[in-house]
Amino acid sequence: MNTNKLLTSAVLTALCLIPTGCSINPASGTPNVVLMSEARELALGKEMHEKILASTPIYQDKKLQKYVDSIGQKIAENSDRPDLTYHFTIIDQPEINAFAAPGGYIYINRGLLAYLNSEAQLAAVLSHEIGHITARHAVRQDSARTGANILSIFTILTTGSAVLADMSNLWSSVAVKGYGREMELEADKFGAGYLYRSGYSPQAMIETIGVLKDQEKFNRYRTKQEGKKQRSYHGVFATHPRNDIRLKTVVKEAGTLPKDQQNTDNADVYREQVEGLVYGINYQMSMKETPKDENRYIHDKLGFTLLFPDEWTIENQRSSIIGSATDKSANIELEVRILKKPVRPTDYIRDEMKIALLKRSESFSQYGFKAHTGLVATSDGRPDKRVAAFFQGRKVYLFTGTVDKPDKDVNYDEMFLRSIHSFRPALARKRLPKAKTIHYVKANEKTTFAQLARITRIGRYAEQQLRLINGYYPRGEPKPGEWIKIIK
Q1: What is the pLDDT of residue 171?
Q2: What is the C-alpha to C-alpha distance for residues 282 and 288, in angstroms, rounded to an integer?
Q3: 358 and 464 belong to one structural domain
Q4: How far is the CA of 319 from the CAs of 120, 226, 303, 468, in angstroms?
Q5: Which of 192, 211, 274, 457 could form a disulfide with 202 if both were Cys (CB 3.0 to 4.6 A apart)?
Q6: pTM for the structure as a whole
Q7: How many domains does the chain have?
Q8: So what's the pLDDT on residue 227?
Q9: How far apart are CA 132 and CA 187, in angstroms?
């Protein structure tokens, strides 16, 4: 055995001597090296859930929320971790996405619900995300990264060299990147089993991937036409080709329902629940109202609002807005710039703000803004600066929190973060356009998607979008008597 294998083996053996080092995976029954207790997993999930609720609009439809929760709870009861308390939340965003946080928290975007066509397909999405939780994928990824850091320490000791790594925040990146091919396939495997135990055909998993793959195909066409970067649903798009043999194998292994149950996908129930679902941008999305006595600044012209610490003075200068503490101990500056070329917020901070290294670096999104924040070390002994960049179309909002005369009893960074996470659009509701919604109609002998597109004002790709939400992309026409979705 070579030195590297011996070193790796020694590290893994040492990890298994730690109380939380080795754990039997509740879904697979095999041992995993983990460095996080279940109690910590639950606490971390709760903390992340609270942050999401504070910074992300939640879809305000109690009936639909109750329905999604009921399907999720049924699947969770038939999972490998039925003892967890599961929470299912609909996020009010048009993007096609769903993701799971540690400890039983699952989120599905309103945008994804528009493209599903049955309760079984909804169950497939939720069962996949439950599979991530039962297999403790977030915990295992965290442990793998921590283990990699341990191996790096051993490398430094034995070789004298060190590598500076830019460690992105795991919990934020999961919603965008997924968990990688092997873990995504494992979630599909467990999820297919949960579908079968819950009375849904495991084939719904493959159906759902077909729906999402059609969306990906359209996105490739659209982004090529418009010269933009493609965006995808995290796990399915990133890991499965349309005819994934391994996926078909794990779905087949889950089981086959009796013939009298094979066609019970509850498409009619799903149709009733999503009737009236908002499609695209929800201009009336719920924003938490701020008490009038809080020190909130609203910029009417640019249409944003920001909360400053109590009793701070706020000055609207020519190129920025500056809030200052009454004792001049600290200030917050907000600049507005124009984005010259498409980049990520983290790249903008590095390249345009000339900040090479951020501590506690974190990407996030809130109220439709894509954002990144972190701490910048100072060289004069003062507390670190807090910076953040928010993207809205071609506008960039740059936030800088600086401490000049620190008071040891004041947590300045907590104040800065509160202001950052209060940043949101502020357009008077009476001026907002009405959101478009999904409705069902029955097709007749003359119904075509081209004809429907001519009377549906949803932009340049109306026919393609109608085909996508009805499962007819890129070709085909609805059959007479068939229920189809329209947008109005």
Answers
A1: 37
A2: 15
A3: no
A4: 53, 32, 16, 44
A5: 192
A6: 0.67
A7: 3
A8: 75
A9: 5
